[in-house]
Amino acid sequence: MSHSHDGAVLELHDVGVRYGDREALRNVTFSVRAGELIGVIGPNGAGKSTLFKAICGLVNHSGEVDVNGVHCHDRVDRMDVAYIPQRSEADLLFPITVGELVMAGRRRFRSWHQRTTAADRAAAIEALAAVNLSGYEARSLSELSGGQLQRAYIARALTQEASVVLLDEALSGVDQPTTIELFDLFATLSKSGTTFLFATHDLALARHRFDRLIAVNGTIQGDGSPEQVLAPAVLDSTFGSGASSSQGGG
Amino acid sequence: MHWLTDPFQAEFMQRAFIAAIIIGVVAPVVGTWIVLRRMANLGDAMSHGTLAGVGLAYAAGINVLLGAIGAGLLMAVLLLLFSSNRRIGQETVITVLGTAFFAVGVVVISRIDTGVELSHFLFGRLLTVSWGDIWLNLALGGGTVLVVMLLFGELRLATFDHVQAEQVGVHVEMVQAVLVLLLSVVVVISLRAVGTVMSVTLLVTPAATARLLARTLKQMTLIGVFIGVSVGVVGLMISYHLDSAPGATIGLLAAAVFAVVFAATLPRRNKHHHRPLL
């Protein structure tokens, strides 16, 4: 179940996170190569979101997080990691158009006082086309369905051109055909070197859509192929005893 | 027709109209972000808190606007220092600071002989605005609008999604600090004209009304400015004819416009209330 550290785009070593007296994560160590498409599974409250926030530098953590070989303490920015949170965290009534939202990913390529360029706009239009939202540029977010909204966030991550994309339950509410299309897109992008970590508790999705799974519940419970991680012993340690039988024996 | 032109005859009224227009433009430009960031409570606290600076400046014999700026800056610094304490929360810190500064102002003004009633600081004296006040407000207001225009993109990113904003290189805390500073400048601009209490009305109410109508941030800012200028000018005319307090009349008109727009847009908001999943 171990993975080579050669060519790693993301490395975590002994990472832990505490919220006050509560230990949310402990002893998390794993390495991710460029272009991997990884499912992160675990029950609600298992620490999946906390893990992603630690990778982004959004929560204080112990241990080490390296992105593209740069230690977390030495990173002057977090631009190489795109984080798509669960949709409930955003203000959906904010007066912003889809085009403006997607264009936000381009901010990393210019300084605060520089205006957006034709290349930025072209990148935004291309990203919207990739998530089947062409022609939605002028719509406000309040006009989008839940699934369309998540696709717009994914388009924003694409314009950011991050080498690591973290999707935290990001396809909640997205219909099945669009989910298939988006995973095809993730697969294409991962072949060109973009790394995806996708938090989900949908084990059917996890089984069929990822080459590698990481099971989390407070710490790493399993790391390997879907067959290895969805084995009864790992499922029971991750989701609680009896979980494997309710999932059809894993 | 005389009803419309009479108020403009006297020079003091011309100065009052210019002052109302400056505030009507600047307050919603900053207020847009105060409303979107749900910082109206901060605006309220800041507007009350500047009274401490006003009172102390009077006691020290220096310009009250300098005192107000000083109090605003001190409040901003203390707020940024204390608001990271998660045990009590930012809203609590804002309220404690605002009421404490306000209390200092009331105590100082009640203890010294300023020759001016406390109510003049609270509700302003739009009809006594001088050309000096107008030039100062024009400079401060122009600078404020310029800063918002320069930082428009950064403000949008930091306000909509501060997590993603940090990821793409926006200095979110710096943007927040600048916004608090601009807020204190708006309060200072409003001080002589509409007073500390009414300044928050012009800061929040036109922007909140625009929020109900606008689809984009630029629309929200422009609609807010239109409402701010309109209620300033019309409110002043009404106060002239009714012989009512100008600041309070403007505030009342702004609230009335908000109520009408709120009622008129209620069906549309209800329609968008339930978001389909697919």
From TrEMBL, chain A:
List keywords of the entry alphabetically. Answer: ATP-binding, Nucleotide-binding, Transport
Pfam family name, one: ABC_tran
Q: Name one GO molecular function term.
A: ATP binding
Q: Which Gene3D superfamilies match?
A: P-loop containing nucleotide triphosphate hydrolases
Domain ABC transporter span(s) in chain numbering: 10-242
The record's section on InterPro entries has: AAA+_ATPase, ABC_transporter-like_ATP-bd, Metal_Ion_Import_ABC, P-loop_NTPase
The record, for PANTHER family, names: METAL TRANSPORT SYSTEM ATP-BINDING PROTEIN TM_0124-RELATED
From the Swiss-Prot or TrEMBL record, give the protein name: Unannotated protein
What is the species listed in this Swiss-Prot or TrEMBL entry? Answer: freshwater metagenome
Phylogenetic lineage = unclassified sequences, metagenomes, ecological metagenomes
Automatic annotation (TrEMBL), chain B:
GO cellular component annotations of the record: ATP-binding cassette (ABC) transporter complex
Q: Gene3D superfamilies recorded for this chain?
A: ABC transporter involved in vitamin B12 uptake, BtuC
Q: Which family does it belong to?
A: Belongs to the ABC-3 integral membrane protein family.
Q: What is this protein called?
A: Unannotated protein
Organism whose genome encodes this protein? freshwater metagenome
Query: How is it placed in the membrane, per its record?
Result: Multi-pass membrane protein
Q: Give the transmembrane ranges.
A: 12-36, 56-81, 93-114, 134-153, 174-191, 221-242, 248-266
Primary localization: membrane
UniProt keyword list? Membrane, Transmembrane, Transmembrane helix
Q: Where in the cell is it found?
A: Membrane
* Family matches, as PANTHER family: ABC-TRANSPORTER METAL-BINDING PROTEIN (PTHR30477), IRON TRANSPORT SYSTEM MEMBRANE PROTEIN HI_0360-RELATED (PTHR30477:SF13)
The GO annotation for biological process reads: response to zinc ion; transmembrane transport
Q: Which Pfam families match?
A: ABC-3 (PF00950)
Q: Which InterPro entries match?
A: ABC_BtuC-like, ABC_TroCD
